[in-house]
User: Which sequence fits this backbone?
């Protein structure tokens, strides 16, 4: 949990979001500005800024991959694109690591 982190606030329930799937370690919710018919963000419940910082805890990558598998399976999606923006220069705007999962 990080103060002033939008996605930590969504995990905490302090900011509303359309949750699509979650377990103890990760959450998938609808992107507020979808770039495809199906566009969810999959985030770990532990706060790290991006893939580089996720090196601090090897469970984070596993949690996000499991979230991607679970939310796509739940929605019956077999073909999808996954994007991680890392760094402001690559258009990362929210500094809580997230996978964009796009389909349709
Ligand atoms: P980034 O550019 O950091 O890779 O992606 C951040 C994503 O978060 C963007 O696609 C943006 O639409 C989404 N986003 C920003 N604010 C909110 C919000 O308050 N709620 C939801 N559901 N998505 C958000
Ligand atoms: Zn956070």
Assistant:
């Amino acid at each position: 949990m990080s103060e002033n982190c939008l996605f930590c606030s969504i995990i905490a329930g302090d900011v509303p979001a359309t949750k699509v799937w979650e377990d103890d370690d990760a959450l998938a919710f609808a992107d507020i500005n979808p770039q495809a018919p199906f566009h969810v963000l999959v985030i770990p419940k532990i706060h790290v800024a991006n893939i580089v910082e996720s090196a601090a805890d090897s469970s984070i990558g596993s949690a996000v991959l499991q979230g991607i598998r679970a939310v796509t399976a739940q929605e019956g999606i077999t073909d999808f694109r996954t994007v991680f923006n890392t760094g402001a220069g690559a258009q990362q705007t929210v500094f809580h690591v997230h996978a964009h999962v796009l389909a349709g």
Q: What stands out?
A: The mean pLDDT is 97. The longest strand covers residues 38-44. The helical segments are 6-12, 58-75. Strands lie at 19-22, 26-30, 38-44, 81-83, 99-103.
